[in-house]
Specification:
mainly alpha
């Protein structure tokens, strides 16, 4: 696959990624634990979209500032969801080779980003939040490093939510350093990047017959949040014509994705659509990331 060739050739490092998140003051994530192989068809490269962020952003060469730290935190949130999506796919044999590459690449990138963020801790709140994120990541990493299994997926359900909450808190801590309006809007855009992967994560919990009811609720909550954020971006006084065109592109990619996510309730029927869901999740992810990159590249003074 084209994606496989690209990602294997890529040198993974620290990226200044346009995906700051956590634009609300309290964690959005509420998904606490309440109590057959699908091969990728020939020529299908759903994960080819996943390499877009690697090619869109240069390696970090300069000292971090608040804006670039927020961008990295946004990427961390997306990666936290994406790696579990890949774990669940791999465990079910859904496009297993692509899933394995996504999982390994996401882990490597997350750790590189975290190490870079630790070089810029301007406030006690940031220092405390990064320490909590590091602890939550250590727990998730141990689970992700093991061979995928249903038992591992069950353990990851709560552990990954705790990690997401920790990343949310860290992003808020960085955002509180400046509270700049442009950073705020970029945070909303970056939050959508994470949500695109979060929906797929819960879909693949359901295809494995795990937490069907709570995962279904989370899918509805995340879809509602994604739609609300699109409207908020589009109506913002800071949104240029180019930004609105980026929103329109997301809507085009989003419509078939959301339809497929809710097309079926039965795990067997959902598994038949699994490859397509994975592909569409990457297409929406690429569109949301492109929007953040375009917006941030404007370079408007904060």
């Amino acid at each position: 696959m084209e994606f496989t060739r690209k990602i294997r050739a890529r040198t993974i490092g620290v990226f200044l990624l346009m995906g700051a998140t956590a634009f609300v003051s309290a964690p959005f994530m509420v998904g606490r634990h309440p109590g057959g192989a699908v091969a990728s068809p020939a020529g299908l490269a759903f994960a080819s979209f996943s390499s877009a962020h690697a090619e869109a952003y240069p390696l970090a060469t300069a000292r971090l500032d608040t804006a670039s730290a927020l961008n990295l935190m946004g990427q961390q949130r997306m990666l936290s969801q994406r790696m579990v999506k890949a774990y669940l796919m791999l465990g079910q044999g859904i496009a297993a080779e692509d899933a394995r590459i996504i999982l390994q690449g996401s882990i490597t990138e997350f750790e590189a980003n975290l190490a870079t963020l630790k070089t810029f801790q301007p406030t006690p709140a940031v220092r405390g939040a990064l320490a909590r994120l590091g602890g939550a990541w250590a727990e998730c990493k141990a689970l992700l490093a093991a061979a995928p299994s249903k038992a591992g997926a069950i353990a990851l359900y709560d552990a990954n939510e705790a990690m997401q909450d920790a990343a949310h808190s860290a992003a808020l801590a960085y955002e509180s350093v400046t509270l700049a309006p442009l950073d705020h809007l970029a945070n909303i855009m970056g939050h959508q990047h994470m949500l695109s992967q979060r929906m797929a994560k819960f879909y693949f919990y359901r295809t494995w017959g795990l937490y069907d009811d709570p995962a279904y609720v989370e899918l509805h909550l995340t879809r509602a949040r994604f739609t609300a954020e699109l409207n908020q971006i589009e109506s913002s006084p800071l949104a240029s014509a180019e930004t609105k065109a980026g929103v329109a592109r997301i809507r085009r990619e989003w419509e078939p994705y959301q339809q497929l996510l809710f097309a079926n309730r039965e795990p067997a029927a959902m598994r038949r659509d699994a490859i397509r869901v994975a592909e569409l999740s990457e297409r929406v992810s690429a569109a949301t990331e492109a929007l953040v990159a375009q917006f941030t590249a404007r370079g408007t003074p904060r």
